[in-house]
Amino acid sequence: MFFASDNTGPAAPQVLEAVIAANQGYAMPYGNDPATHQVEARLREVFEAPDARVFLLSSGTAANALALATLTQPWQAILCHEAAHIQVSECNAPEFYTGGAKLLPVAGPDGRIDPDALATALGNLSDGKSPDTRRGPVSLTQVTDLGGVYSLSQIRAVTEVAKSFGCACHMDGARFANALVTLGCTPAEMTWKSGIDAVSFGGTKNGLIGAEAVIFFNPDHAYEFEHRRRRGGHLMSKQRYLAAQYLAYLTDDLWLDLAQKANTAAARLESVVTKIKGAKLLHARQANMIFAVWPRATHRRLLAAGAAYYVESGDPFSDDDPQDLLTARLVTNWATTNQHIEDFKANALVD
User: How far, in Å, CA of 142 to CA of 184, rounded?
Assistant: First the structure.
């Protein structure tokens, strides 16, 4: 019954095997190994972007912050959703790595930036003719931090507004694969063909041990990113171990299979959550995240039975009214089993 985060799940066996296989003999450091070159070529193929530049890192925060720093000047604003991970969960890392560029939150339903709100926010910023805060890149999250998935038309609606103001567009793709299988489109369609200039292509939440990739569709950004990555302390010496993870991830569509398993498990879990007495979904489930409220008494029973998930409002073990509705976030991963969900059901649906 472990639904705290997809970060908590195990690595896929194929990934572990690939790392062990990479641990044979010697290889040049700092990305000069054959495996890294293979991953770079493979990702260019997957994204249908032969000129793209690919960089491997070990954390999603570094991927987001360094990508945005490459697209941003310190006197600019980065526009993102008010619930975006870069806004609420990265300890001001984007501000740190950009040298002071500010984050400007924009509203929108289910974690998606509202294009009209974005246009208003960009219109209120400097056009470069004054010393005021100037327009910088727009960052959108796919899957959003509230469990939503931008459709292709919704991505384009955001990027078209951004481009009309001359702004670059970044995608935080920590759950990129989960969104892709939801939409049933290609990586190219969800990124550069829809106006995305750079993507943080996540793997850690979907079966990797700890590996992320940043992809710039304009190769002109490569020189600066290479320097920022090293200066920021995120150039891995033994990068072959990151590369090995991605090679396994991209073989035989493993990355899509793992994401589909997570999404399917979330759909099954959702069918249980909606049957809890007094429960209500707060956002539509579109991938592998569920946000809902249900009574404190049910939270208390589930947590006492060993369920792990985030209660985001209130103390489930307080002496307050047991019928108070408390907010929960539940996330499935590729290794979530039917038994996990059945155990949750047995403790949740008790009269």
Answer: 14
